[in-house]
# Entry
Amino acid sequence: MPFPAQRPRRLRRTESIRRLVRETRLHPSRFILPLFVCPGEGVRREISAMPGNYQLSIDELVKECAGAHALGVGGVILFGLPESKDEQASGAYDDNGIVQRAIRALRREIPQLLIVTDVCNCEYTSHGHCGLVKDNDVDNDATLQWLAKSALSHAKAGADIVAPSDMMDGRVAAIRQTLDANHFEHIPILSYAAKYASSFYGPFREAAESAPQFGDRRGYQMDPANAREAMREIELDLAEGADMIMVKPAMPYLDIICEARRRFDAPIAAYQVSGEFSMIMAAARNGWIEQDRAMMESLTSIARAGADVILTYFAKAAARLLG
# Structure
């Protein structure tokens, strides 16, 4: 038999050829770096489960963001650790709250930085759940008021994009209506539309000090077994006014990203969460995998699945490699 005319290895022979025909390309501008801001001054407290990530006071946050911005990272998303917590999550929507002060400082010091804010309550409630608790359950409709007030306070402080992550029904519409009524109709909403009740959030809960004090979040975050439900959640959020949608976590849900890309024209973000990051770091530190290659392969898989934007704790490291 004659040898096949096609030899796919021809296009893999050298790095220059591989680079020429590469189908999926990463760029630092597609990354968003999650950061944790806390009270105090000169605070740079490493998160034990997330090497190289820190709880940062506002002055240190500004330095971290300046470094990320200089590397070409597309933006940052802020999570707040308040001085105190209560059952009403009052620190979340306080105009002088930790995230609101951080936004103003960043806007003053790095005016071109893209600032996204996480809109949720779990970091601010004494019980660690994402809303008002009644009879050991989160009251969906009452919680919407808190979320809308938080988003409005972030917009007033200077946020570019607000990102509700609570998974309450109707939150996008409530936030959109409140922003529009207060002349912030230009602020986009990046909705955590398909956020799963995942086991990969553990290190984040240390970082944000947001572990629930009782029960879990499976009553409002999605069942990992469900794919069709994710499409319904995305469709509902877009109908309510979301400008972008997010799938979280990323790598265990590449099929969800891929199907969302096939069905919807809106920009799609994916969050490579703390557990994904920590597993790669732990394996690399044990010498089981090569850190940089695993990092870039994981990010490439998320982009290849269809994500336009990737929230990742690797944002700065990957940006350095991409140069």
Remarks:
- The first strand starts at residue 31 and ends at 37.
- The chain has a mean pLDDT of 93.
- The chain has one domain: 25-322.
- Residues 25-322 form a domain with the TIM Barrel fold (CATH 3.20.20.70).
